[in-house]
Design a protein that fits this description.
Two copies of one chain form a homodimer. Chain A is an alpha+beta fold. The first copy, chain A, contains nine helices and ten strands. The model of chain A has no long low-confidence stretch (mean pLDDT about 95). Chain A binds a DNA duplex (30 and 30 nucleotides) through helix 9.
DNA sequence: GCCTCACATTAACATTTGTTAAAAAGAGCT
DNA sequence: AGCTCTTTTTAACAAATGTTAATGTGAGGC
């Protein structure tokens, strides 16, 4: 396990002293997931927090019409939505899927909750991750409610450069709240 | 201060033993806000958590086009979005406004954070409030991204019965992600 | 009762997005 | 290169939503 790589992702959110890492690193497990695999299933029992080292993942749901709705996208070197935000009574509220082959580490969410109580640095780190998640959600709410699909596409390109060439367009479209046909039309008028 | 009333709102989220209340109740302040008043301003310094005893409030933002976008609605006997979800570096990320005359209690967010560390019941309560907030956000994301405005109106009526007759329609429209003219059109076809 | 003001509805037209189906382009395999 | 399968683009038309402006409605003050 490459500790330097992991620490570098963690410190994108807030700084952790070497002493604090000790206990944390012990609990880590590596995890590789191949393209197209759901590694967390809605209504399945869930126990972990996840950090993506490389690869692209998404959370999604099936809506009442049977269509997949992409809720969030996660790229290289990011932390997945915190456990608390995607779990009710131990069961996942969302599906999480690897869009490309993905390398992750995972660790026990309950152990981490305890670590947050005891360790101020990890408490702040956890809060930073949570705030980031919420800021993304609020931003998306505003965009979905108040700007056009074309503007959302521009913002998507800023937020996730390269994703447009790396992941299937129906996934991007469902993230933007439009059909893939509409996405193709918008691409034509903006390239 | 009517402790029974306050406890009844709190226990809508999770149970708290009488012993745990002791310290909590001491820190409460009452607050009355009249219709139309912003009681939290975006980019203003913020310190409190809020519980609405009665009245209707909303969070909103001004988008780049200068339009108000309603993010969330809060009715009688509910807890406002937790501090952590609406604050960055001590400054509010959203405006909060009383849509009708509103009676609330507020308490220090930092004291409460400390209480959560020390008291398991309030930790669970805080987590329940947070999960509820997130569940609402995910639900809204899905709806904005994948169902029509007409369907969102039906869901709004289920989630907030009576609000349609109590608050201005431009606010409802901006919550649904449409114009007030479109809302009026939808109302006509569905009543 | 009548004014005024704010709010809601209606109408006419423009624009955006959805739907369905066909055509084109791209990716892997032999 | 040629074949097959998947993904993306195009086209034609339908439906939903936006824009602007006029009309209607209701509540409160005089």
């Amino acid at each position: 396990m490459n500790e330097v790589e992991i620490k570098s992702v963690i410190e994108r959110y807030s700084a952790i002293s070497p002493a604090s890492y000790e206990e944390f690193l012990k609990g880590l497990e590596e995890l590789s997931v191949s393209k197209g695999t759901d590694f967390i299933r809605k209504d399945g029992r869930e126990f972990y927090e996840y950090i993506i080292l490389d690869g692209i993942c998404r959370s999604y749901l099936i809506n009442p019409s049977g269509d997949e709705v992409t809720i969030s996208l996660f790229g290289d070197q990011s932390v997945l939505s915190p456990y608390i935000t995607r779990t009710r009574e131990g069961l996942s509220t969302l599906n999480f899927q690897a869009i490309t082959d993905t390398r992750m580490v995972k660790f026990s969410a309950s152990d981490f909750e305890e670590l947050m109580v005891q360790n101020l640095e990890f408490r702040e780190w956890g809060n930073e991750v949570l705030k980031h998640e919420l800021a993304m959600k609020v931003s998306r709410e505003i965009d979905l409610a108040s700007i056009t699909a074309k503007e959302r596409l521009f913002k998507f390109r800023e937020l996730f450069p390269m994703f447009e060439n790396l992941i299937p367009h129906p996934i991007i479209a469902s993230y933007l709240g439009i059909t893939n046909v509409s996405l193709s039309r918008l691409r034509k008028t903006t390239m």
